[in-house]
Design a protein that fits this description.
By secondary structure, the protein is of the alpha/beta class. It has two domains: 202 residues, inorganic pyrophosphatase (n-terminal core); 117 residues, Diaminopimelate Epimerase, Chain A, domain 1 (Roll). The protein has twelve helices and twelve strands. Strands 3-2-1-4-5-6 form a six-stranded parallel sheet. Strands 7-8-9-10-12-11 form a six-stranded mixed sheet, sandwiched between helices. The longest helix has 16 residues. It starts with 10 loop residues before the first helix and ends with a helix. The structure holds guanosine-5'-monophosphate and manganese (II) ion. The site of guanosine-5'-monophosphate has 16 residues, from β11 and β12.
């Protein structure tokens, strides 16, 4: 078998990994947090880091102001989650911020964050501004879960002590699966499959992950999907736009977090390179998801509107604009990328 190199474990990254392990071993109080609008990688990597800190007998707070989407509640430890209003101060605590492409997107009160000792940043967004005092950032990694896996397995190797079992394994597997689109996307590397194999061998509940994330759609979700797909707009055979308004969400009794599974439909049409999904979260707030298939850099389009993300998956947010205005602004800029 050919030797499989894990880029996230190359010399430059090992230095940061070892700094993180040393720092955790030499300090006692941590806050684990991630980005707003939590997804599988956010929650999976956070719960895995919490499990690691627990195994090391560290004191920690899991702090995330946004609630879990219903499809991820099965990861089970939502009771652990605290919000900023429940924590008066973070004096003496070090914040481990994971999967958050910028300081602004960290999902906690920033005045509270400023009372901490500082931030250790673990992330795979290339728009990340190195906002930590230690930064383990590999923009080519499949997921933040893969980076957390590298940290924990490095510790396991150094200390000859196993940490990852079924519970941490399931959390890491959930983030790996969701951020790679179930191993479909170009960020899926040989190292991602090795990690998946290792996690499954250690008891990660892979069917539980698949059943909860992909096989628990509500009838209301199918109805909104139907309406949304009926009204898809395809421009020049290359750009696809889908829209879900607040009115549609209310009509079907769905929350904004319940419809993310619609996003890939916009990209997955033959010939389409760029998918744009416009979600009206509130009357005055519109969230946009951008997805590309093989050559458009979504971060370029997102950055035009102060957003960010990955080359193949980015997002941006609009306030006080109508759906029509947002559609027109995005389309005008998107056309320039071709
Ligand atoms: P999604 O479309 O799944 O919400 O997000 C795709 C990627 O884009 C994620 O990695 C996320 O971090 C990033 N992203 C989504 N929305 C925003 C946004 O409003 N601002 C920034 N900076 N990044 C975003
Ligand atoms: Mn991620």
């Amino acid at each position: 078998m050919a030797e499989i190199k894990n880029r996230s474990l190359s010399e430059e990254f090992l230095i940061e990994i070892d700094k993180i392990i040393d720092y955790i071993l030499c300090n006692d109080k941590f806050v684990v947090t991630s980005h707003i609008n939590p997804d599988g990688d956010n929650i999976g990597s956070s719960l895995a880091m919490c499990g690691f800190l627990e195994a090391l007998d560290k004191e920690y707070i899991y702090l995330l102001d946004d609630a879990y989407p219903s499809s991820l509640v099965f990861l089970n430890r939502e009771g652990l989650r605290k919000t900023s209003d429940q924590v008066p101060s973070l004096e003496g605590y070090t914040v481990i911020a994971q999967d958050s492409g910028s300081y602004e997107r960290i999902c906690m009160d920033k005045d509270l964050l400023e009372t901490s000792r500082g931030i250790i940043c673990i992330d795979h967004h290339h728009t990340n501004g190195d906002y930590g005092f230690i930064n383990y950032i590999d923009a080519k990694a499949s997921s933040t879960c893969e980076l957390v896996y590298n940290i924990i397995t490095r510790y396991e190797d150094i200390k000859a002590r196993p940490i990852i079992g079924p519970e941490i394994g399931t959390c890491l597997y959930a983030g790996l699966v969701t951020d790679t689109g179930n191993f479909q996307y170009s960020n899926t590397e040989p190292s991602s499959f090795l990690m998946a194999a290792d996690l499954i061998a250690r008891g990660a509940k892979k069917q539980l992950v698949i059943e909860n994330i992909y096989q628990k759609n509500s009838p209301a979700y199918y109805r909104i999907l139907g309406e949304c797909l009926n009204n898809l707009e395809i421009i020049d055979s290359k750009i696809c736009i889908a829209i879900v308004t607040k009115e549609m969400l209310d009509k079907y009794g769905l929350e904004y977090g319940d419809i993310d599974a619609i996003i890939p439909y916009t990209r997955d049409i033959d010939g389409v390179e760029l998918g744009i999904f416009i979600k009206q979260k509130e009357i005055d707030e519109i969230k946009v998801s951008l997805r590309s298939k093989s050559y458009i850099d979504c971060t370029e389009l997102a950055a035009t509107f102060d957003g960010g993300g990955h080359v193949r998956a980015s997002g941006c947010t609009f306030r006080d604009k109508s759906v029509e205005e947002v559609r027109n602004m995005l389309l005008e800029q998107a056309k320039k990328l071709f």
